[in-house]
Design a protein that fits this description.
The complex is a heterodimer of chains A (593) and B (386). Chain A is of the alpha/beta class and 593 residues long. Among the domains of chain A are: 2-75, Ubiquitin-like (UB roll) (Roll); 91-208, Alpha-Beta Plaits, CATH 3.30.70; 272-308 and 317-332 and 418-583, Fe-only Hydrogenase (Larger Subunit), Chain L, domain 3 (3-Layer(aba) Sandwich). Chain A is 33% helix and 13% strand. Chain B has 386 residues and is α/β, with parallel strands linked by helices. Chain B contains 14 helices and nine strands. Chain B starts with 17 loop residues before the first helix and ends with a helix. Classes of the chains: A alpha/beta (593), B alpha/beta (386). The interface between A and B is large, with 40 and 36 residues.
Chain lengths: 593, 386
């Protein structure tokens, strides 16, 4: 252990602990900006400087390991003056149109300015002298360089967590900026639209592209019938933007709120998540049969899940030779969209051209996905507007709803039923677990051999998880799988996806089925979730997801009554002709830059 | 010469047979070499002046199967051109110095990081390097040197940014600690030394530490190569004993109308005429990596300062706030004051900012911007304002 003094208080920490972490142990708050728990240390904003006795300069507490006998002071005149200067400098290169900024009141620079730099500015405004770009090319987010303070959190996110590096630091000195390959617009580079950078940006330099006004317009258009779906990860995180602690489930209140906002029908992505399991599970079993029994060499294994649009774009850019391995199933959002303007329209006897389909997602990549040209199988744009969890919170605030005191409500019928299997889609390993709950039962006629249906080996925050399930006691149709060991893997965060893909490319991946989610923790840690998101918060949301699952009566996708009904009335059976028409898709190869 | 109090020395460019020194050095233990260098009091000749013996001692103490000697030949400080001359004329001594340093710290590999603009030297250096490798082999010793080219960024002369550059990354300084002696190039213990330092170290072994400390002062031992430029009838490279005053220097090199000398380049200090006599060039006064720029009364010190600030605004790597934004603010600030668009009292705010940069910037670049700024604004305030 290392002993040091911070503000004259003794503290002992493990070797390698930073001064910042040591201070935290003493509950001494040191302001930070470029620091983020998910990312490597940068030490470049310098807001966290403190005074070390005997040192020539101040030291960055986030980047300096504690050492024996160190004497640190975090709040001397020297430190405070330097911090004030640093915040003033940051403000001088930041377009501070705070009252109009989407990040107003959730901006880390603003918080620091309130603490250190209120009143008249000391320094000259540098923003007016520079020509800044606002890049609106991506359907998912806006990159406004005039608000960028070069903390490089986004750059570190993109390379460390997502292994993409669509954005990187360009130029030096006064011209330094966060840029893309050859300064191309974000829509024309490897960016997966995952929004992890958006979630970590301390200012308004990276924000999601909002469609709130368009949705309000639709709601108030008497000619339109507006349906809304909400992804499972939204209900365990929305509360955070409305004054709840992380990990509190607000499912019922959210449904009520959506109704109060004026949506004509409040439905559930859970329904189409269950449908995805039926389609994707069947697809997997068919692939296995063709490969193992028929010896069809053209069948690509392992099969990859296709729910995460960030992951889809990643593989399209980085590993296009493995596109045949992707499940052809659309994501639950897009299955829902295709059915809303066909099955739902027919059933409710509404002209599909009058239906506006809105989805609430923990995700910014879903905005891009909804815009894909493949996603128009209903004859219309299947999903018209995608809002993030954060945008929904904004709408709830705009409407002046007393969210905390809303009654709990349930989703409408037709595409509104949910199971626990669908709910866990929101956490890494959830799609795998849901698929196994159903596929195992189809093949053996029995429930998965795990206590209370909880397939714990596929759960948790490990970056790459592997599991093997032995299949025994098959029913007649699936006898060829008797004794087979189904090998599965799960990865979340594209840096981990890349680890699996490298193995696959090298021919060293023995898996049959692989679940990949673009975001750390899966959708609960999505780019569209409340800010901040970090490991602690992701874990709380994940706990809430599994609690939601446990509290459901139905916990297997094939038991979802709405799913059973739609096969009976409309789709016939999984992977039917109709299913392929509406619920399956194809992918495109993209450039790797 | 004598009467002006300047002692010209011929050490760096002295013609010697490196092979003999190397044979002698390779017979010594690592500790013996380091002891010699420690006794000589040699401080780094790149400008920062870290004791070379200590640097080697720390690196030698690290346990690692792989260590590196880096020769920092990214000579980018405005007004410095002595490493170019050394490499051009006595590169065999540079290579020899690296081998000796390698022996001292236990490294088998050395890399010369050569300033991009010096690429034209490369063909000649490659020939020299080949004969050096041959000689080393003849002696029966194992030490390999490679050359890596810089690409024109001033910041890559900063040791950790230089490592990043060699590693193929964006040249940006790292957080310290860990220091290079513990974790340098490719996270291996690394001793990074200036071109001249390595040659001087070799010459100390040649002549002995006792001879070396006959020159210079207690804080600034020996001699050093100066790059003299500006308003002088005799610009060029001069090797001089350390410890002279600026007055002595100006007596030798000035044009009779010298009003200021910028010692140590853009990141150094500006010494005005009234302080010539009392200012010693060396670690007890104003240190320099070699750059000595003389300005006569025809020069506007506003223009000099503006030029330096433009330089730093361009050459800051841009990663840390105090340096990236601070440089821009200093530059824009003096422009506004000059034009009368900001009050002259704003200079006081800018001086405070320079103080913050000195203690809060991440690396030596940002920390030293204030040197030139404060010494020029402090001594020539009226030239900045009017």
């Amino acid at each position: 252990m290392i002993n040091l003094l911070i503000n004259d208080q003794k503290v002992s920490v493990q070797a390698g602990t930073t001064v910042l972490a040591a201070a935290k142990k003493l509950k001494i708050n040191i302001p930070t900006l470029c620091n983020h728990d998910d990312l490597c240390v940068a030490g470049n904003c310098r807001v966290c400087v403190v005074e070390q006795k005997g040192a020539r300069t101040l030291i960055a507490s986030c980047a300096t390991p504690a050492s024996e006998g160190m004497e640190i002071h975090t709040n001397t005149l020297k430190v405070r003056n330097a911090r004030k200067h640093i915040v003033e400098l940051l403000l001088s290169e930041h377009r501070a149109d705070c009252t109009k900024c989407y990040k107003n009141q959730n901006c880390e620079l603003q918080t620091l300015a309130n603490e250190f730099a209120f009143g008249d500015h000391i320094f000259l405004d540098l923003v007016e002298n520079k020509k800044y770009n606002i890049d609106r090319s991506s359907p998912s987010f806006i990159k406004d360089d005039s608000k960028c303070i070069r903390c490089q959190r986004c750059v570190r996110t993109c390379s460390e967590l997502q292994y993409i590096s669509a954005i990187a630091v360009a130029n030096k000195g006064a011209h330094q900026k966060i840029s893309s390959f050859h300064d191309r617009p974000m829509s024309h580079v490897v960016c997966t639209n995952c929004g992890q950078c958006v979630n970590r940006c301390p200012t308004g330099a990276l924000v999601e592209k909002t469609y709130i006004d368009q949705v309000w317009d639709a709601i108030y258009d008497p000619d339109k019938h507006v349906v809304v779906q909400t992804a499972p990860a939204v209900r365990v995180a929305l509360g955070e933007d409305l004054g709840y602690d992380p990990g509190e489930r607000v499912t019922g209140k959210m449904v009520n709120a959506l109704r109060q906002l004026g949506f004509n029908s409040v439905l559930d992505t859970d329904f189409s998540a269950d449908l995805t399991i039926m389609e994707e599970g069947t697809e997997l079993l068919v692939r296995l049969k063709k490969a193992l029994v028929d010896g069809d060499k053209k069948i690509s294994l392992p099969m990859f899940t296709s729910c995460s649009p960030g992951w889809i774009k990643f593989i399209e850019h980085k590993y296009p030779e493995f596109l045949p391995n992707l499940s052809t199933c659309k994501s639950p959002q897009q299955m829902f969209g295709a059915l809303a303007k066909t099955f739902y329209a027919k059933k409710r006897n509404i002209d599909p051209s009058k239906i506006v389909s809105v989805s609430i997602m923990p995700c910014t990549a879903k905005k891009f996905e909804a815009d894909r040209p493949e996603m128009r199988s209903s004859g219309f744009k299947d999903v018209d507007y995608v809002l993030t969890t954060r945008e929904l919170a904004v709408m709830i605030k705009q409407a002046g709803l007393d969210f905390r005191n809303l009654e709990e409500a349930k989703c409408d019928s037709i595409m509104g039923d949910s199971t626990g299997a669908a709910v866990i889609f929101g956490a890494t390993g959830g799609v795998m677990e849901a698929a196994l709950r159903t596929a195992y039962e189809i093949v053996t006629g029995r429930e998965v051999p795990f206590g209370n249906l909880n397939i714990t080996p596929v759960r948790g925050m490990d970056g790459v998880k592997e599991a093997t399930i032995k299949i025994e006691g098959c029913v007649d149709d699936w006898k060829f799988l008797e004794g087979a060991e189904l090998k599965v893997a799960i990865a979340h965060g594209l840096v981990n996806a890349n680890k699996i893909m490298k193995k696959v490319r090298e021919g060293k991946a023995p898996y049959h089925f692989v679940e990949i989610m673009a975001c750390p923790g899966g959708c609960i840690g999505g780019g569209g979730q409340p800010i901040p998101t970090n490991m602690q918060i992701r874990e709380k949301r994940m706990k809430a997801i599994y609690a939601e699952d446990e509290h459901m009566v139905l916990r297997k996708s094939h038991e979802n009554p709405d799913v059973i009904a739609i096969y009976k009335e409309f789709l016939d059976k999984p992977n039917s002709h109709k299913s392929h028409e509406l619920l399956h898709t194809h992918y495109v190869e993209r450039d790797n830059y | 010469m004598e009467k002006k109090g300047l002692n010209k020395v011929d050490l760096i460019f002295e013609k010697i047979e490196p092979k003999e020194v190397l044979i002698k050095a390779f017979k010594m233990t690592s500790a013996e070499i380091i002891q010699n260098i420690l006794e000589s009091g040699l401080k780094g000749r790149g400008g920062a002046g870290f004791p070379t013996g200590l640097k080697w001692k720390y690196t030698a103490a690290e346990k690692s199967s792989e260590k590196y000697i880096i020769c920092n030949a990214d000579e980018g400080e405005p007004g410095t051109f002595k490493d170019r001359e050394i490499l051009d004329r006595v590169s065999n001594k540079v290579h020899g110095g690296m081998a000796i340093a390698g022996k001292a710290i236990g490294a088998k590999n050395g890399i010369v990081y050569l300033r991009g603009e010096y690429r034209y030297l490369l063909p000649k250096l490659m020939i020299e390097l080949e004969s050096f490798h041959k000689m080393i082999k003849e002696i029966g010793y194992e030490f390999n040197i490679e050359y890596r080219m810089g690409s024109g960024a001033y910041i890559c002369g900063e040791e950790s940014a230089l490592f990043e550059s060699i590693e193929g990354k964006r040249g940006e300084p790292r957080n310290k600690p860990p220091y290079p002696t513990v974790s340098g190039l490719f996270e291996k213990p690394t001793s990074i030394n200036n071109v001249e330092t390595l040659v001087t170290a070799m010459m100390i072994l040649q002549h002995g530490a006792k001879n070396f400390i006959q020159y210079g002062t207690k804080d600034s031992r020996g001699s050093k190569v100066f790059s003299v430029s500006g308003d002088t009838p005799t610009p060029g490279i001069f090797e001089l004993e350390l410890g002279m005053t600026v007055q002595q220097f100006v007596n030798e090199f000035g044009d009779g109308d010298t009003k200021a000398v910028q010692v140590g380049g853009a990141s150094g200090f500006c010494v005005p005429r009234k302080k010539f006599a009392e200012t010693i060039i060396g670690f007890e006064g104003v240190p320099t990596g070699g750059s000595m720029k003389l300005f006569n009364s025809s020069r506007s010190m506003y223009n000099v300062l503006h030029n330096y600030l433009e330089f730093f605004t361009e050459e800051s790597c841009g990663q840390c706030t105090p340096c990236r934004v601070g440089c821009q603010q200093l530059l824009l600030g003096v422009e506004k004051v000059k034009k009368g668009e900001a009050k002259s009292t704003y200079l006081t705010e800018l001086v405070k900012l320079a103080d913050t940069m000195k203690i809060a910037a991440k690396c030596g670049l940002g920390q030293s911007v204030g040197n030139a700024f404060k010494s020029i604004v402090g001594n020539f305030r009226e030239e900045i304002i009017y």
